[in-house]
Amino acid sequence: MSFLDQLQAWYYQNRMVVCIVGVIIMILVALLMFFQHPSANESEDEKQSLVETPSQQSTSTLHQRAADKQQPFPIIVDIKGAVKRPNTYKMMSDDRVKQLLDRAIPLPSADLSQINLAEKLIDQKMIRIPAKGEQNSINATVTTATSPSSTNTTTEPINLNIAQLSDLTTVPGIGPAKAAAILTYRDEKGQFQSVEELKEVKGIGDKTYENLKSYFTV
Fold it and tell me: 74-129, what's its fold?
């Protein structure tokens, strides 16, 4: 009997054992491959984690920076006029005119109806509290009589960064609504960088701006 015949005879006698050993080997190989290579889902999760983590950290950093920018900081404000304690005061950037007046103490003669108590304070700003019967204006108005029937009035430009409601409403074409819109814009956006920025204020278009620009400065 040849070797091949002997091998074939042995296989028929032990084929059950051979099958079992083969199955065991296949299981071992499968387990080895499984533990060496993570599943597709696990691999995808790891990739997603690697992608999201820097983004989440970046978002957290941006939020922290935004919070830092919103932190109030010290400012110096000057107050004059009908107050008991006219002086320069160290305030915080989120303080209002009302808080400054609480420290300066208005006189009984002070006309607070001309003052926007809710207005935010601005660094290096001078606030003048008018007395009753006195017009509150930071602008010097010179009136020269040229004849009994004619009057020439010259008004200096109004500084948009320190003007109050009563100052703005002295400009032709600006009523209380537009004046309030200008103050709201200044409170939200900060100081005006140019007079042309007025066009960003709600209700002031190009045509209105052309009529108003000569009345203002920054």
Answer: Ubiquitin-like (UB roll) (3.10.20)
